[in-house]
Amino acid sequence: MSILKIARMGHPILRRVADPVPDPTSAGVAVLVQSMVDTMEDADGTGLAAPQVHVPARVVVYRVDPSERRGVSEGVPLTALVNPVLTPLTDEIAYDWEGCLSVPGLVGLVPRVTRIRLEAETPEGERIKREVEGFHARVLQHECDHLDGILYPQRMDDLSLLLFADEMRHGPPEKARRLMGLAPRSESGSDADEVEEEDAA
Ligand code: NI
Q1: Over the stretch 107-164, which tens digit does the pLDDT of each residue have?
Q2: Is 143 one of the catalytic residues?
């Protein structure tokens, strides 16, 4: 078990473009992936990209748990991708909250395309080519942005929707609800569970 130090916003490793991995099946990649998984699970994150642990390589790990709120009926098991390439398959944009282990304490409402093609290799030597949509597509876009030196606040179009996660207890901003296509808050407003989990990635 090896838990690595996580780089925070402002560290130069998070701004640079990560290098392609020549041999995804190498022992070095296997060790890196295991350490990334240990680090992600220790931090209770949804995903982690290698630059976040100070390694400038195109490797990401993530896991998507089933979530009614996020419209995820079946989750995605723990997955490691090497040299992933994403291609948008639609212009359709959806807004949802994102957090990031490199931007601790904050959450932001981020627009992302809703459907992408994923091409990648795995540490087991498989080649993946598939279409991905919804929250899974969001997680992949967030993680692959890390490989290009981009953090989620750079994808936001309204920085008034960048908040400290623990202030969400007051309820999300109305504008965020509108952008997410949710009904206005009711008077009784017990909708705190809409923002219950801001999976940090
Ligand atoms: Ni992140």
Answers
A1: 999 999 999 999 999 999 999 999 999 999 999 999 999 999 999 999 999 999 999 9
A2: yes
Please tell me the pTM assigned to this model. Answer: 0.93
User: What span, in angstroms and rounded, lies between the C-alpha atoms of 147 and 167?
Assistant: 30
Handedness of CA 110, 113, 114, 119 (dihedral sign): negative
Report the DSSP pairing between strands 59-64 and 127-133.
unpaired
Give 65 Cα–ligand 1 centroid separation in angstroms.
Answer: 17
CA 23 to ligand 1 centroid distance, Å: 24
- One of 126, 143, 187, 196 is an active-site residue; which one? 143
89 DSSP 8-state letter: -
Q: From CA 120, how far away is CA 129, in angstroms rounded?
A: 7
Task: Show the domains of the chain with their CATH numbers.
Answer: 12-186 (3.90.45.10)
| Helix ranges, the chain (H) | 27-42, 134-147, 174-179
Cα 164 to averaged position of ligand 1 atoms, centre (Å): 16
Dihedral sign for Cα 174, 171, 10, 50, please. negative
Query: 85 has which bridge partners?
Result: 119
52 vs 57: CA distance, rounded Å: 10
**What is the full DSSP assignment across 50-63?**
GGGGT--BSEEEEE
